[in-house]
Design brief:
The chain has an eight-stranded antiparallel barrel with strand order 1-2-3-4-5-6-7-8. The protein has one helix at about 1-20, and strands at about 35-40, 55-65, 65-80, 85-95, 100-110, 120-130, 145-155, 160-165. With about 170 residues, it is mainly beta. The chain is about 10% helix and about 50% strand.
Length: about 170
């Protein structure tokens, strides 16, 4: 069991390194406005705007950014050991309807009753994701915004905490 956990940690570290390596250059914290907050499990985020009307997932966030994130999964991989990786296109919509788009790179380790069957998840062991902002996608207050949000899952509470840097705007 200890060997499997060590392997899971190594795989998570490698996938994080690979995912960070494919994130766009300049998407990190090279200045800009530092932000932080958390997901809001009880938030109601039904159907997104336009092409995002039937998202694969939606969740609320609060803190320096307040609104909903809508996502459309573009690719994923799940291994028999329970390691899951996903890429998605996302849009953040704030309380005033202003938006920016992101590309999500998510990874997690799950314990399943049936391999990779999400209807049989017993537990999430760890998880997190990187969300580089798509350059030129901002509207309203987010016009011209660049940067990245990083989320880390708290598997005990079901809340993910985000932090990041946004350039081109001030909150």
């Amino acid at each position: 069991m200890r060997r499997m956990m060590r392997l899971a940690v190594v795989l998570a570290t490698l996938s994080t390194t690979v995912l960070i390596g494919i994130a766009p250059a300049g998407a990190g914290g090279n200045g800009g406005t530092q932000i932080s907050g958390q997901t809001v499990p009880e938030a109601v985020c039904e159907g997104g705007p336009g092409d995002w009307a039937s998202p694969d997932y939606a969740f609320g966030i609060e803190g320096d950014l307040n609104g909903c994130v809508y996502g459309l999964v573009t690719s994923y991989n799940c291994t028999p050991s329970g390691m899951y990786q996903e890429r998605a296109d996302e849009i953040f919509v704030d309380e005033d309807g202003d938006t920016f788009q992101m590309t999500e790179f998510f990874w997690a380790k799950y314990v399943f009753d049936e391999v990779c069957n999400f209807d049989t998840v017993q537990a999430q062991v760890f998880g997190g994701c990187k969300h580089p902002i798509v350059t030129g996608s901002g509207t309203g207050d987010y016009e011209g915004v660049t940067g990245r949000l990083d989320f880390k899952d708290d598997v005990d509470t079901g809340i993910a905490y985000y932090k990041g840097h946004l350039k081109g705007i001030s909150l």
